[in-house]
């Protein structure tokens, strides 16, 4: 497997598979381990591959009225 195939595999994981960045990075680490430790093949181009970055999560901020409405609805459902 060459650089093009490895990049393609990781891209398919991310796009078609919809995996998280951590899963994509784990797959890259597994490939690095396979080539270095098992097959004893040094692939310098694999060291320079860019790892996937976690997406930034934006917190949901509720207005005071929304907090009151949601807590009121929950209390009403419990009774």
Automatic annotation (TrEMBL):
* Domain Integrase SAM-like N-terminal: from-to ranges: 1-44
Q: Name one GO biological process term.
A: DNA integration
Q: Does the keyword Ligase apply?
A: no
Provide this UniProt record's keywords sorted from A to Z. Answer: DNA-binding
* InterPro entries registered for this protein in UniProt: Integrase_recombinase_N, Integrase_SAM-like_N
Q: Does the keyword Manganese apply?
A: no
Gene Ontology molecular function terms on file = DNA binding
Per its UniProt entry, which superkingdom is the organism in? Bacteria
Q: What is the name attached to this protein's record?
A: Integrase
The organism encoding this protein is Rhodanobacter thiooxydans
């Amino acid at each position: 497997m060459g650089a093009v195939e490895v990049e393609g595999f990781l891209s398919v994981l991310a796009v078609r598979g919809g995996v998280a960045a951590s899963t994509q990075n784990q797959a890259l680490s597994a490939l690095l381990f396979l080539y270095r430790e098992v097959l004893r093949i040094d692939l310098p181009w694999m060291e320079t591959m860019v790892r996937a970055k976690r997406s930034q999560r934006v917190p949901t901020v509720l207005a005071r009225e929304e907090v009151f409405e949601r807590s009121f609805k929950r209390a009403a459902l419990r009774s």
